[in-house]
Amino acid sequence: MTIALVILWHTKLKPFRDYAVVIDAGSSYSKIFVYSWSTDKSGGLGTTSRIKQVKSCSVSHEPITTIVNATQDNVKNYFDSAMTTCISSIPSTRKSRALIFLGATAGLRLLNITDPAYITLLLNSTRTYFSTLKLRFRDPINQVRIISGSEEGLSGWISTNILLKELFNKSKPLDTFGVLDMGGASTQLSFIAPKATKERYRMNLFDRNYDVYSHSYLCYGQDQARLVHQGRLVEQANGSLSIHDPCLQRDYIENKTYNDLFSTACAHGQNESSVYLNTSSIFSFMYDNLNYIR
């Protein structure tokens, strides 16, 4: 007589996860985000898997445009430390499937006006660097690009309303929130506007149509607006290098060069008399409490 013992083992395997690396190349600094989601489409329910932020890494306290000579080596030096840290959070078995995207905003949109050749070189060098990372980088032109102001506004509108649970959970367009997003070089305004005649964008989100107005006000970001403001103060200072700035707190001094104030696209046409100033000057801005500057 032969007795066979059969043992059945049943376990639920965890689904694979996919990853994406997203770089926000803003006008003030760059930051890398790693996102992950389940590949099983939410347990077969047919809905979009919940995306989780796995890691974020600040590239630098300076924007990508501080790369003066936009070679591949200089782009690598700018990104590499933070990029290596962030990519290390992706399992080695999933790395080749991980997408990578860089979206540049108003800082590069502005510089593309005054120096398009530099911007072309910077983007191409960034694409070349990304191609060495062994991530999923098959469409370089679309995966590294300058996004439009309207696209930036729409992205902010979607993110805000998902976080406030007005999308997917409720799906009532007129109950959504409008968004005012002030960055370093531009401000975006986005809100539901079914009857808008300009800059109205229809988006289908979770099987629902949303007609969203989105407009970007270039030069009305915090940093650029401040530079224009300071340029006007210089013009009114009658040649003085010590400038009273009522927007500063007491005992704080901020130094700016001529190029800082007058070389950006936002300054062109705003400070016409700047051509008569000494281009080698360094201007000191401070709060003048009556007799502070003497």
Automatic annotation (TrEMBL):
The keyword Phosphoprotein does not apply. GO terms for molecular function: ATP binding; GDP phosphatase activity; ribonucleoside triphosphate phosphatase activity; UDP phosphatase activity. InterPro entries: GDA1_CD39_NTPase (IPR000407). Coiled coil: none annotated. Pfam families: GDA1_CD39. ATP binds at G184, A185, S186, T187, Q188. The active site is at E152 (proton acceptor). GO terms for biological process: nucleoside diphosphate catabolic process. Keywords: ATP-binding, Hydrolase, Nucleotide-binding. GO terms for cellular component: plasma membrane. The keyword DNA-binding does not apply. Transmembrane segments: none annotated. Belongs to the GDA1/CD39 NTPase family. This is Uncharacterized protein. It comes from Adineta steineri.
